[in-house]
Amino acid sequence: MKIRDDYTCPLEIVHDIIKGKWKTIILYQMKDGPKGLAELEREIEGINQKMLLEQLRELISFGLVEKKSFEGYPLRVEYSITERRGRKMIEAINIMQMVGVDYMLENGMTDALIEKEVLSAEEVERLMNER
Fold first, then answer.
1. For residue 37, which of 19, 18, 60, 3 has the smallest C-alpha distance?
2. Is the bond preceding residue 10 a cis peptide, omega within 30 degrees?
3. Is the pLDDT of residue 2 over 70?
């Protein structure tokens, strides 16, 4: 994806960089450290390798992700969040994650939070009691 030349504000640029179904999810999966392609594909339910590679290429071109290749056989590649721009985006994604958690708690979607290991049963119970 190409960045447009005419923007009215920086938020439009960020929106264009992360728009789509997968980019924020891919970034979130890498928040704790580098990941290989197969690992990302396993962890992101519903994404295929072609789409994952396309999204990673875009995230690399926008300076949010970096790719490191290791010599040897079999070829090994790792993707990681960049320190400058990628880490800032993770802070924003963490806030978006908490908005989603809050919505799910409000709407009785606690089972999904526990099943997907977003929160433990104890964390869900504590947050529900704080309401």
1. 60
2. no
3. no
